[in-house]
């Protein structure tokens, strides 16, 4: 009975091929998973943007209702929007009301005072 001796270089080559095939499968599976996550994230971001636009529309409706002028920064400028929400007195009042820290009557009183102060400056 003759035994065939497999050279070490051949064994090493097969080990390297197996390693590459295994890592290739692992990479493709992870890449497919990431692709599905990216698609889901894109959908969620789209829904978030739509909700943000609706919230901004609600705020503009409130400003128009009380005859106040709001100059909203570009929707893409997140820093300017954040600063706008922090520094605008009308939005501060609405935020307090929406967070239920002000009653509707108190909110109306503060908005009326703000409108009067704004009118006095003009």
SSE order and pairing:
Layout: H1 8-65, H2 78-87, H3 89-98, H4 104-121
Describe this structure in a few short sentences.
The chain is mainly α and 122 residues long. It folds into two domains: 1-65; 68-122, no CATH class.
Primary descriptors:
122 residues, mainly alpha, 2 domains, 4 helices, rod-shaped
- Average pLDDT works out at 91
**Main sheet?**
none
Integer tally of domains: 2
N-to-C SSE string, H for helix and E for strand: HHHH
Low-confidence stretches: none
How many E strands?
A: 0
Alpha-carbon distance between the termini?
108 Å
**Class by alpha and beta content:** mainly alpha
Give a verbal description of the structure:
The structure is a single chain. The protein folds into two domains: 1-65; 68-122, no CATH class. 79% of the residues lie in helices and 0% in strands. The chain has four helices and no strands.
């Amino acid at each position: 009975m003759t035994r065939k001796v497999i050279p070490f270089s051949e064994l090493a080559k097969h080990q390297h091929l197996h390693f590459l095939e295994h890592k290739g499968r692992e990479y493709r599976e992870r890449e497919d998973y990431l692709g599905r996550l990216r698609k889901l994230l894109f959908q969620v971001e789209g829904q978030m943007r739509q909700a943000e636009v609706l919230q901004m529309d609600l705020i503009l409706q409130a400003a128009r209702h009380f005859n106040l002028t709001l100059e909203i920064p570009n929707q893409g400028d997140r820093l300017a929007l954040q600063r706008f929400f922090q520094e605008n007195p009308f939005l501060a009042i609405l935020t307090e009301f929406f967070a239920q820290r002000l009653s509707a009557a108190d909110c109306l009183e503060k908005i009326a005072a703000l409108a009067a102060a704004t009118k006095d400056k003009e």
